[in-house]
Amino acid sequence: MTDANAQGTAAHTQPTSDSSGRTAPNRPAATTRHYDAPDADCVRGSEYSEILALETEQRKRAAEHRRKHGHTHPEQERSHGERHGHGKGHGKGHSPHRGHGKGHRLDEDSGLAHIRRDLAESVATRADSLTAILKAIHAHPETAYEEYFASRTLVDAVREAYPNLSNPNLSIEYPAFGLDTAFKVELTSADYDPAKHRTIAILSEYDALPGIGHGCGHNVIAVSGLGAFLALADALATGPEAFSGRVLYYGTPAEESDAGKELMARAGAFEQVDAAIMVHPYFMDVADQAWLGRRECRVTYRGVSAHASSHPFMGRNALDAANLAYQGLGLLRQQIPGSDRIHAIIDHGGDAPNLIPAAASLHINIRSKHAPTLRALSRRVEEVLRGAALMAGVSAEVTWDSSPMTMPVRTNRPLLKRWVSAQRSVGRHPYPPGTVSDTLAASTDFGNVSLRVPGIHPLIQIAPEGTGMHTVEFAHCADTPAAVDAALDAAFGLASVALDFLIDDELAQAVRADFEASGGAVDVEGYFSDM
C-alpha cells in the first residue's frame, strides 16, 4: 500500500453528546481507506470493445465483398422492380389466413410508384412537425407507464392531421388495452373487409431511461411510427384506391423496464393482426441483429436464526444458500452458449453479522437467443437455486417473471427484404444480419409480438459507430440532425413495407410461409408453464 493509491481518514477521538445532552464516551472515528483500481487510468472493458470493433469491421468487409462481387445476402436481394421502388401485387390483398390471393406483378404503369411517391411526399411535407415532436419527446423524458406527455403528443398529432374523426375509416382509442399510456389508432380503406383484407400494425415506443433520458432513442421510434402511419393515411386520402386493408398504429409503453407489449398482447392487441413492424435506432444501419429473450427470477431462502458466536450450530444459514446459488450460477456460465446471459445480485443477506441470517435473497436476470434455449436455461437456473437450498438445509421460494418476460425476436425474412429495398431507395444500405457481433445483443418486448405474428425490428443509424445504447452519449445523439434524418427515412421505410404487405398477395403468402417455417405462433403467455 502506498500513498499513491490509498487514502485513509485518521481516527480522532472527540467527546460527543447524546440526545439528552449528556456527554457520551469518547468513540474513535471509523477509519476508511480507498484503493484505486490498478487500471483506473484505463477505460474498463476497453480491450473487449476493441475486439468487438474488430469483429464488426471484419463482418462489414465480408458484406462489402459479397456486395461488390454479386454474392448478396438473401435479405439484400431484390428484383429489378424493387430497385426502382416497385413491389408486387397491386389489387385487393387477401389474407394468407383466408385462402390464396390473386394479385398480379406490378410493372412500370401499375401505379405503385406513384403511391410510393405519395408516401415520400407525405413524410417530407410533415418533416417540420415530425421533427418538432421528436425534439419535444426528447426534452420530456418519461419512464415506464409514465409517458403521458409522449403518448398524448402522438395522439394529438393524429387528431391535428385528421380533425374529422367522425370519419368511420379513422378512429382513436386512448388510453387503450388497460394501460393509461397506450393507444390504438385504426385506419381502414373504404372497401375494407376483414374476411378478405389484411391488417398490419405499426408500433411506436416512447419511454425513457431513469437518469439518462432517451439513451435508447425511443423518441426516434415514436416519430418513425407516427410518420409512417400518417403517410399511409395521406395516401388513402389522396386516392381511396391506394390500398385495401387495415393499418393499426399502436403506442406501446414501458419497453425499458417492463414489457408493455406483452400486456397489450394479453389484452388482445394482436389477435386480429397479420404482421407487425417497427424500427430501432442504433450506431449503424443493420437489417437485423440478435435480440435475446429475458426472464426475471427472484429467490428467497429461509433458514433459522441463531447467535453467530455462542450457538451457530442451532441455525440454518440462508446467506450460505444465497452464496452457494451465486457461485453456482457463475459456474453454470461455462456450460451455456456464448449468446446466453446470467446476471444476479444478492439483494438481501441478513440483518446483523452476529446473527445467523434467517433470510436471504437474490434477484436474477437470464437471457437467451432462442425461446427453447431460454426455457432450458430457466430450468437449469432453478435447479441451481434448489440445489443451494439443499446444501444449506434451508427452504427456497423461487418466483419467475414478476415483470413480464421478453422473448427473443424472430425476424420475418420476406418483410425484411422489403425494408432493405425501401431503405436503399432513400440512400441507406443496411448491413445484413450477422454484421454486428451477437455479443452486443440486448432484449426487447417486440420479441413477444414477433412470436405471435410475423414482424421485423430493423436498426437505423443515429449515432457514430461504437456508441453504446443506454448511455448519455446515445441520448445526445437522439436529438441531432442524424436522428431526424433517421426518423424520416424510417417513417418512409415502414410505410413502404406496410403498403407492400397490404397489396402484395405473393408477399403476404411468403411472409406467412416464413413465419410457419420458423415455428409458427407461440403461446407466449403459457410458454414456461410446464417447466
Description:
It is a single chain. This protein is of the alpha/beta class. It is 36% helix and 16% strand. The protein is built from 14 helices and 16 strands. The protein has helices at 46-68, 80-83, 112-125, 127-139, 148-161, 218-238, 260-266, 318-332, 371-392, 413-425, 446-450, 472-477, 481-503, 505-517; strands at 6-8, 13-17, 23-28, 33-35, 170-173, 183-188, 199-204, 246-251, 275-277, 280-282, 293-302, 341-348, 359-368, 395-400, 455-456, 459-461. The strands form five sheets. The chain has a six-stranded mixed beta sheet with strand order 5-6-8-7-9-15, covered by helices on one side. Helix 6 (218-238) links the parallel strand 7 (199-204) and strand 8 (246-251). Helix 3 packs across helix 6 (218-238) and helix 10 crosses helix 13 (481-503). The longest helix has 23 residues, at 46-68. The radius of gyration is 27 Å and the shape is elongated. It starts with 5 loop residues before the first strand and ends in a 14-residue tail after the last helix. Mean pLDDT is 87; it is low at 1-13 and 72-110.
